[in-house]
What does this fold into?
Amino acid sequence: CATTPTASSNAKEVSPDRMYIKEENRVKTSERNASLTIIRDGGAWGAACNHRVYVDGKKAFTLKPSEHATVYLKPQEYDVKVDLAASSLCPYAQVDEVINLEPNQQRTFRISSVMSLNSALKLTEVK
It folds into this structure.
């Protein structure tokens, strides 16, 4: 079992009630001019579970299958963590990546899941 990639053009915008990052990080400015987009895969595997995304330890947003969110950040290095909250349907899993954003850069990553105890979640850059 594995998830299915969702094309960025087909991904739905995350619901505003699951955006936790500050409002100022949702709009591009001259200071916060680097964008980070995370797209969650679709498919049956893990469909009942939400994926929480953290930027430098702060919860930024929560994604359901085939959703995406974009945040605008200052150009610098960030620790991005994605996790699955443990529940009766989903085991706890997490992945951490250090992502460097350059001025005016747009970077996009996808969250994929596989049925594995060692690497259930993956964060892969979309080129």
Observations:
- The mean pLDDT is 90.
- Strands lie at 12-13, 34-40, 51-55, 58-63, 67-73, 77-84, 93-100, 106-113, 121-125.
